[in-house]
Amino acid sequence: MSEVLVTSPADGVTQVTLNRPDALNTLTADAVAELHEVLTDIAQDRSCRVVVLTGAGHAFSAGLDLNGYGDEDRVADEGHLARTLSRQREIAGLAQQLHELPQPVVAAVNGPAAGGGLAFVCASDVRIAATPAVFAVSFIRAGFSACDIGVSWLLPRIVGAGRAHELMLTGRRFDADEALRIGLVTDVVEPTRLLAAALAKANEIMLNPPLSVELTKQGMWIALETPSFDASVEFENRQQVFTALTEDRAEATAAFLAKRPPSYRRR
């Protein structure tokens, strides 16, 4: 059985479901490799406008499978230290892939999101939680550093440095209501409404031209690394010129004025 399911619940939307429900969708070598392949394919798929990321069963993802990652043969071949570094890079690379996808990623957090699961939530662009969702950095409680899979960079930029420090130093669990209050998620809904809410958000995004959405996602994340206000404004100026000269910009304006649905071509 595939450990990552890929479906298309609506035109323009690709749903990626972590599919180890009996193991809380924890990460193994096979699941990580499969997810890398899926995300690589999605990045090249121009028919995909928005990605919805969720988990099968009652969990989003509880992070690394502490019962065994499944790469013992490679440990024997490479040695423990070198293989552990390779493993870390493989898993962290998933957060980088999500972050760098041209399409926005909507995380539909259906249940526990801990460790690597929290990292995937943070690396997404829009986050919606079901009421049973719980979150935790986790790895510090298992004896590792909490600075893992990009969370030390992402979490402070989403919820603020003060709250991120507290969450990472304690490793405590927090629920969906707190996640909403601190700004980690934008909405909390009942479990039966989660995927519908994620698709509704995807549809809102797809009202906008594809290239405009791609450049906005890129620009928003780059702005978090840009050293000055003036540099950000000058970057925005170029984005505005690029999008102003597209065919889709003219179509967006015409559709708005005519009060009709737009028809975009990514041109």
In short:
This protein is an alpha/beta fold. It has helices at residues 29-43, 72-78, 80-100, 116-123, 151-159, 161-170, 176-182, 194-205, 210-223, 229-244, 247-258, and strands at 4-10, 13-18, 50-55, 105-109, 113-114, 126-130, 134-136, 174-175, 187-189. The chain has eleven helices and nine strands.
**Tally the helices: what do you get?**
11
> Strand-and-helix sequence, N→C?
EEHEHHEEHEEHHEHEHHHH
Secondary structural class: alpha/beta
The main pleated sheet reads as: 6 strands, mixed
What integer is the average pLDDT? 94
Main sheet: strand order: 1-2-3-4-6-9
**Strand element count:** 9
Shape: globular
Describe the protein.
The chain is α/β, with parallel strands linked by helices and 267 residues long. The protein is 49% helix and 15% strand. The protein has eleven helices and nine strands. The strands form two sheets. A six-stranded mixed β-sheet has the order 1-2-3-4-6-9, with helices on both faces. α3 packs parallel to α4. It is globular, with a radius of gyration of 19 Å. The mean pLDDT is 94.
What is the topological layout?
Layout: E1 4-10, E2 13-18, H1 29-43, E3 50-55, H2 72-78, H3 80-100, E4 105-109, E5 113-114, H4 116-123, E6 126-130, E7 134-136, H5 151-159, H6 161-170, E8 174-175, H7 176-182, E9 187-189, H8 194-205, H9 210-223, H10 229-244, H11 247-258
Parallel strand pairs: 2-3, 3-4, 4-6, 5-7, 6-9
Antiparallel strand pairs: 1-2, 7-8
